[in-house]
Please model this.
Amino acid sequence: MAKPAGLCPRSAAALVIQRVLLGQSLTTAIADTGKSVAEQQRGLFQQLSYGVIRWYPSLKAISEQLLTKPLKAKDADVLSLLLAGLYQLRSLRIPDHAAISETVNACKALNKPWASGLLNACLRNYQRQRKTLETLLENDLVSELAHPAWLIEHYQADWPDDWQRILSANNQQPPMMLRVNSQQSNQTDYLQQLSNANIAASALADCPQGIILQQACDVLALPGFVDGMVSVQDGAAQQVADLLELQPGQRILDACSAPGGKTCHILERFAENELIALDISSERLKQVEDNLSRLQLSATCLTADACQTQNWWNGEQFDRILIDAPCTGSGVIRRHPDIKLLRKPTDIEQLAKQQQALLDSLWPLLKPDGMMVYTTCSIFKQENELQIEAFLQRQPDAMEHLPAKAPARRARFGYQLLPGDNDLDGFYYACLRHR
Amino acid sequence: MALLNILHFPDPRLRQKALPIEKVTDEIRQLAHDMLETMYDAPGIGLAATQVNEQKRLIVIDVSEDKNDPLFLINPELLSTEGERDFEEGCLSVPEAYETVTRADTIRVRALNLQGEPFEMDAEGILATCIQHEIDHLEGKLFVDYLSNLKRQRIKKRLEKHQRQKL
Model:
């Protein structure tokens, strides 16, 4: 008997979107549902899932114009499928008739055959009234820019000159970037291996181990991926290892390590260094362990809330402490478009408190000549320069350390990359030392 | 280990009735392992000896995600069946066709294992579907036989055309 046909890419994407609407992360939903999608159809499945979430505010607004009455909550899968249909008509190069008929067919897989007529009518109406509907969108900031209103306002307030550029960068599909494991290979050699495998790529500026692929591909297609020769990581995150000014023989703390990209990068520099990798979630810490084992590196992984030092710290201070703090992710929306749906305005305040607690409780763990690096993948000032400014006021013995090479534009304190700067994710960096 | 050639519908050899295995020899064990490898490669979740042109009552099955739970059934017999279950079946001998077939939901089977020892087992869900699908092969029967004449003819024409193009 042949392997079961599994879900068609459109019905599977609808199920993913439904799960995100219910609060699950896009990455988890794709990993779970993707198992039931045939391999050769995973590309379209992922493209649809990411695309619909990325453009959700716009697609939702169009769907409201097309539906005479809103769908019931239990039919969120039908709504999701409608959005996937609209996304295909707006953004993908699939002929309209194929996009419509395949989307209508997917109702069967969702066990909602009654919805076929509805979807057919809505998608054909969109086709007919495309111009009018799209003009309507342009008159509404939320649907035109495809971000919730509170996020737009926050970007405007923090970046009055750049917010439009930021929002547009958030809606781009980001390039796939790699970090070569310097324990096993180097940028030049690995570029050669990629070229031998017919994968077009080039060196990433300012990242000695960084590579940017011309086109995203399955990680398993990357030479030596399984054996740990290379990892997927944005260049913005790759700059952190440089800022740490690593040396052999250091004792290092990575306080919020999952999924382990920076953790592994630190050890790839000097594999013998003693590294303690913490994460508050044991499930997420498992990803760190998996990455370490794939890259053939070792660290002490502990499930702990870094702030509760009495629960995990043995009293020996660190040469380096990395706080890659939990944050809104407002700089990486292009990679995690579900942030648009999952984050709430109240999250900022709560995350800022967590960040402050991490800074305050870990500062005493730093050796007198040690360095602490604080990073976030946010571009909101409250999580970044204002957070560090407040910390420096609370800790008179702490001061900012200026690295030899600035990783990004100078902020009032620290450095800020905006999404799309040098093609990279939005990211914040600050280095701290004792006075 | 070797990959075996899988016969495709409407090959008449798929219609032969397989013969019972008198003794489980090393050759039978070798055939079983080659069939397993062929099935994983296809990729499939079940394969009957008939499909690789061996007229022997031997089937291999693995319905696990991770391909780590192989089941070998020699001279399998359905002892009892219960309930109904619809499943969209596909067959390695009928490439790219998937159609819904109704079969028993729960079954009890007797067979010999690779050591030639008899055993009985209960199966339900996809495993039950798969065992019934493979036992059908040993009787010269295919899942397309459960479909309407029209659907079967359409699949047959498509595969015949496909085979002509390959020649």
Observations:
- The first strand of chain A starts at residue 177 and ends at 180.
- The CA atoms of residues 307 and 358 of chain A lie 6 Å apart.
